[in-house]
């Protein structure tokens, strides 16, 4: 009995259990990706036009990305308290929207609806912060895979919630809003005491590689399964019994990862974390040199290395840098040199937010993210109207599909960018540049409106958009450190709503309403056109403006295509500027 109690204690303090619980929370945290499904419901119920829906979309994006309060509270309060605050915000915000849409509460002005959407979606920032903070602290040597997987499950949340909604089989479409208000709240409260830092650096073991491979396999199976289910439900009429079976299998796939902490805890080979065989950080240090001094020695290389080192071939450059690091460490241990403590950190060290804001590399990351992810978010927010304009009735399918591709983009972005930095010591943003070119092709397909273009565009934009959120957090932590990761990450996420504010709130909505007003004028006065009647149709809010045909988003998609190409260019500039940094960070492991 005593041994069982010890095992249960180890189980609840196992970092893999925390990781799996964080995955479950993230699976229901991607509520922002369902806006494309609920926006037509809000639009028809409250008689909004596309410009008003775009404003709600911007409020949603702001709520989803402004996480300063979540980052601050996560440093002051325990993570369970941050999760509780997020759950309360989610329930109050979307619960109120549901009451208004269903007529159970009086209709409120648009600005109040924006505030409610902001409050509800802002709860997601608490879920994200708690999951990522616990993840990077418990897996300090696997930041790329951990961030990619956790952000990937957040992107998959839209497809998971849509499948649960299909199980409910409610004729009232507003019930999806109710499910958004209740579902994430219940999951977060149920798991809030599990998601926390548990000294993960002491739990590193040789089986971690196999465990990550298992998680990746489950991710691929889950994405493939959801894609198959969505296609089947779109192409044929499926009975409620079959839908129940589909949803049951989905829950089984989500539960399977818990096998990892169970097997690690109750297997014969389990040992107390402090007795792990792998070398700890203190064992890897040079004798006589503290961990803090080692970090400073690492940065001294930037000052001490000759300029011609940067001109050498990659392999030779890595060897020279490794030799210089070793000499500095030995000299410091013998007292031959005094290590300088600089007030201004170098790239690769811990920056505060203020210090990072004066660095060109930080702003390159920010504006590349603004153009790339902002264009992707514009598609996500307008996916319902885009599919309807091309004649598709079931908009939920495309919302679910882009959620799945978003998930695979995040998981794949973390995996392949990790290969780039670990195996080739090359900047992580090279993967970002590729993702942004892929998105540019996706926007081009949306612009053309060819048969099947919605499916191809959804695939390419979803993959590219998702990759941003696996690559950027990992790259920011590498260039600016982990100490203030929460503040740095939450500032960078502002790029998302900033891009959406311009691209969706101004460009897309204006072009859509303009084309819709032209079509409305043609319907009411065929063969006639005059500026006064066009302006009257454009400004009227008596009935929602509806646009049909590829022309509705043609110019918007072409503009977004060009912005992604610019974003890719910014990413490549960052790659050029940070080559030596990544050689210093990862080159030594390859020699």
TrEMBL record:
Annotated membrane topology: Multi-pass membrane protein
Limits of the Nodulin-like domain: 15-262
SUPFAM superfamilies reported in the protein's UniProt record: MFS general substrate transporter (SSF103473)
Transmembrane segments: 16-36, 79-101, 107-127, 148-168, 174-194, 214-236, 242-264, 351-377, 397-417, 429-448, 454-476, 488-512, 553-576
First-listed, main subcellular location of the protein, grouped into a coarse class: membrane
Domain of life: Eukaryota
Compartments in which it is found: Membrane
Annotated keywords: Membrane, Transmembrane, Transmembrane helix
One cellular component (GO) term of this entry: membrane
Keyword Transmembrane helix assigned: yes
Sequence ranges assigned to domain NFD4 C-terminal in this UniProt record: 357-518
Similarity section: Belongs to the major facilitator superfamily. Phosphate:H(+) symporter (TC 2.A.1.9) family.
Protein name, entry field: Nodulin-like domain-containing protein
Native source organism of the sequence: Anisodus acutangulus
């Amino acid at each position: 009995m005593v041994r069982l109690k010890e095992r249960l204690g180890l189980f609840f303090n196992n970092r893999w259990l925390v990781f799996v619980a964080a995955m479950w929370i993230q699976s229901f945290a991607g509520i922002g990706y369902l806006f494309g499904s609920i926006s037509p419901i809000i639009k028809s119920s409250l008689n909004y036009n596309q410009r008003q829906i775009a404003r709600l979309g911007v409020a949603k994006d702001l709520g989803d990305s402004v996480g300063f309060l979540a980052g601050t509270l996560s440093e002051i309060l325990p993570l369970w308290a941050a999760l509780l605050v997020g759950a309360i915000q989610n329930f109050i915000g979307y619960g109120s929207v549901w009451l208004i849409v269903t007529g159970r509460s009086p209709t409120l002005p648009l600005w109040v609806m924006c505030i409610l959407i902001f409050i509800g979606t802002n709860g997601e920032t608490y879920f994200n912060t708690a999951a990522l903070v616990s993840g990077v602290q418990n897996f300090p040597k696997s930041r790329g895979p951990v961030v990619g997987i956790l952000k990937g499950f957040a992107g998959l949340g839209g497809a998971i919630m849509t499948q649960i909604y299909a199980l409910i089989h409610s004729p009232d479409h507003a019930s999806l809003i109710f499910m958004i208000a209740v579902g994430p709240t219940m999951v977060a409260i149920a798991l809030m005491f599990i998601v926390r830092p548990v000294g993960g650096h002491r739990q590193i073991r040789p089986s971690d590689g196999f465990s990550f491979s298992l998680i990746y396999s489950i991710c691929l199976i889950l994405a493939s399964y959801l894609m198959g289910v969505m296609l089947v439900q779109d192409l044929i009429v499926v009975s409620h019994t079959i839908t129940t079976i589909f949803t049951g299998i989905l829950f089984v796939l989500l539960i399977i990862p818990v096998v990892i902490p169970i097997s690690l805890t109750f297997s014969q080979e389990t040992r107390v974390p402090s007795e792990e065989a792998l070398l700890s950080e203190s064992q890897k240090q040079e004798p006589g040199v503290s961990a803090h001094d080692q970090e400073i020695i690492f940065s001294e290389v930037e000052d001490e290395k000759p300029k011609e080192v940067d001109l050498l071939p990659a392999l030779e450059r890595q060897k020279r840098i490794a030799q210089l690091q070793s000499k500095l460490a030995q000299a410091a241990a013998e007292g031959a040199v005094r290590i300088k403590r600089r007030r201004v950190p170098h790239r690769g060290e811990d920056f505060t937010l203020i210090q990072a804001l004066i660095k060109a590399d930080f702003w390159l990351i920010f504006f590349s993210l603004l153009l790339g992810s902002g264009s992707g978010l514009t598609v996500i927010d307008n996916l319902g109207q885009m599919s309807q304009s091309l004649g598709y009735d079931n908009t939920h399918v495309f919302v679910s599909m882009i959620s799945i591709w978003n998930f695979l983009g995040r998981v794949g972005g973390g995996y392949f960018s990790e290969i780039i930095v670990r195996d080739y010591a090359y900047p992580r943003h090279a993967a970002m540049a590729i993702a942004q070119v892929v998105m540019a092709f996706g926007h081009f397909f949306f612009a053309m409106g060819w048969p099947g273009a919605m499916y191809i565009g959804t695939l390419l934009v979803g993959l590219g958009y998702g990759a941003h959120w696996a690559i950027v957090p990992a790259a920011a932590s590498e260039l600016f450190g982990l100490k203030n990761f929460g503040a740095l990450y939450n500032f960078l996420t502002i790029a998302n709503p900033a891009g959406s504010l311009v691209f969706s709130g101004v460009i897309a909505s204006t072009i859509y309403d303009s084309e819709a007003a032209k079509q409305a004028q043609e319907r009411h006065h065929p063969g006639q056109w005059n500026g006064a009647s066009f302006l009257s149709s454009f400004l009227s809010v008596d009935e929602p403006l509806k646009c049909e045909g590829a022309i509705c988003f043609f110019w918007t998609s072409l503009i977004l295509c060009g912005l992604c190409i610019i974003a890719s260019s910014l990413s490549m500039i960052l790659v050029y500027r940070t080559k030596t940094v990544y050689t210093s960070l990862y080159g030594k492991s390859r020699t």
